[in-house]
Write a structure and sequence with these properties.
Blueprint: H1 3-22, E1 26-38, E2 43-48, E3 58-63, E4 78-85, E5 91-100, E6 124-127, E7 132-134, E8 142-148, H2 158-172, H3 176-180, E9 182-188, H4 196-206, E10 217-221, H5 224-234, E11 238-241, E12 244-247, E13 251-254, E14 260-264, H6 271-285
Parallel strand pairs: 8-9, 9-10
Antiparallel strand pairs: 1-2, 1-4, 2-3, 4-5, 6-7, 6-10, 8-13, 11-12, 13-14
Length: about 290
């Protein structure tokens, strides 16, 4: 057999193996403590132990499969659970078993304090140029806002959110009027490390190295006190852990009057979904 054919067979074999892996669901069992339960989105925020092959120990939200009964699960419960990672990298809990409910009620059932229709906190932020801005500076515009930090190592967390925002940014540039009526804001949860210079470098990587586009997408960092205010409003959980920051997810849509419209607490939303939500707000305004 020729070397060419050997290489071809090897390549086909590798491709078939990779295809099988990509198309195969992955399942992981883990244990942890329920920090909060959000019935509206069927989400459990869990402070869990290390999940070998999937995720280090951290606190994060997990969407729960529709067939799972959450009526017997409350904040403070210790649980055993199984997470299913689908071929498209969506993940959800398909088994949840309460193993200890003696500490039930010692943790708030709901961490979020702000609900749709309520005004967002108008806090000061430092942007990528070192300029102090306020969220009220964007009144009159529809704002898509999320929380990230530049050192985040989890591809399904901050890097995915920033990539989704980059896709939304590109779509909104297609219409000049739409571009001028909207704004994107990324807020760092790492005030110690994410200086304006660090945020600027990080932002340029998602803006095709074009600093002019910062006019539409701000990369910001609040003071620790203002970060706590925002976290309380949006139910954001974060804490330093092994030189990283374990955190939950929160992406919010804000109307031109500065009121909360919609919130995503996982990263499985899509750019077209966000753009459609933005356009719906714009349509209602008009």
């Amino acid at each position: 057999m020729s070397i060419f054919l050997v290489r071809r067979f090897l390549l086909v074999g590798v491709c078939l193996t990779l295809s099988a892996c990509v198309n195969h669901e992955r399942r992981y069992d883990f244990e942890g403590r329920v920090v909060s339960k959000v019935l509206a989105t069927r989400t459990l925020v869990v402070d869990h132990e290390n999940i070998p092959g999937f995720m280090p120990a951290m606190t994060m939200p997990y969407p729960v499969a529709n067939g799972v009964d959450l009526s017997g699960v409350e904040a403070g419960d210790r649980i055993k659970a199984r997470i299913v990672v689908h071929p498209d990298e969506r993940y959800e809990l398909d088994k949840v078993l309460v193993t200890d409910s003696t500490h039930r009620g010692q943790t708030e059932k709901e961490t979020r304090q702000l609900y749709p229709g309520e005004p967002i906190p108008d806090v000061e932020l430092l942007n990528q140029d070192g300029k102090t801005i306020r969220l009220s500076d964007f009144r009159g515009k529809t704002v898509l806002l999320t929380f990230i930090y530049t050192r985040c190592p989890m591809p399904t967390f901050c890097p995915r959110l920033s990539s989704l925002f980059a896709s939304v940014e590109r779509e909104l540039t297609r219409d000049t009027n739409e571009y001028e009526r909207t704004h994107l804001v990324s807020i760092s949860i790492d005030p110690k490390f994410d200086t304006p210079a660090v945020l600027r470098k990080y932002g340029l990587a998602y803006l095709d190295d074009d600093p002019k586009r910062f006019v539409h997408w701000s990369f910001t960092v609040p003071s620790p006190e203002n970060l706590r205010k925002l976290a309380a409003a949006f139910g954001l959980i974060y804490r330093e852990q092994e030189n990283q920051i374990a955190h939950s997810l929160s992406t919010v849509l804000i109307d031109p009057q500065g009121r909360l419209v919609k919130e995503w607490t996982v990263s499985d939303w899509t750019a077209p979904e966000a753009v459609a939500a933005i356009r719906q707000v714009e349509s209602a305004k008009n």
